[in-house]
Amino acid sequence: MPKILPVRPLRQETFAPFGHVIEADPARMRLINGGNTERFHALAEAEAAGEGARVILNIFRGQPRAFPYQLTMMERHPFGSQSFSPLNGRPYLVVVSEDDGGRPAEPQVFLAAGNQGVNYRRNVWHHPLMTLDAPSDFLVVDRDGPGNNLEEFFFDDPFLISAPLISE
Ligand SMILES: NC(=O)N[C@@H](O)C(=O)O
Ligand code: NI
């Protein structure tokens, strides 16, 4: 029986080993434009390593995942960070792993709210986009350039996400 992974709410403190949560954090706010606009400053940094690399902005339109979901693989991008910011205001799942000697450790699953984005630091193990309920668009900021920027790992034994609900 595959091991069922608990789902936790996405919080910066628990996500810190993997990157940053992109959300309107009052501690990062400064007023600009004559007080008309609140700027939540420098919530994360985009990384694009290697000669000829550049930071690009994309839209990913993800189809909803079906549950229970068998999680069989993780991936990482050795030359750059990757951020996902929801454009439709719907929740989604974020799945990350610590590195364990070059392979992902047991995945950790977070339920992100529709007003939370994430930025995976360069070379952080994560599962590809996990959209819920309906096709959803995400602004994705990541790295383009020479070299293979995608490393995948397939588990011998899959894990299971039974439902995208908070279980902790
Ligand atoms: N491969 C690709 O562009 N998408 C993945 O990196 C992902 O994290 O969804
Ligand atoms: Ni990715």
Automatic annotation (TrEMBL):
Catalysed reaction, written as an equation: (S)-ureidoglycolate = urea + glyoxylate
Pfam families: Ureidogly_lyase
Broad EC category: lyase
GO biological process: allantoin catabolic process; purine nucleobase catabolic process
UniProt-listed Enzyme Commission number(s): 4.3.2.3
CDD domains, alphabetized: cupin_UAH
Tagged with keyword Kinase: no
Pathway assigned in UniProt: Nitrogen metabolism; (S)-allantoin degradation
InterPro entries according to UniProt: RmlC_Cupin_sf, UAH_cupin, Ureidogly_lyase, Ureidogly_lyase_bac, Ureidoglycolate_lyase_dom_sf
Regions annotated as coiled coil: none
MF annotations from Gene Ontology: ureidoglycolate hydrolase activity; ureidoglycolate lyase activity
Keywords attached to this entry: Lyase, Purine metabolism
PANTHER family in UniProt: UREIDOGLYCOLATE HYDROLASE, UREIDOGLYCOLATE LYASE
Subunit structure: Homodimer.
Entry's family note: Belongs to the ureidoglycolate lyase family.
Name of the protein this chain belongs to: Ureidoglycolate lyase
Taxonomic lineage: Bacteria, Pseudomonadati, Pseudomonadota, Alphaproteobacteria, Hyphomicrobiales
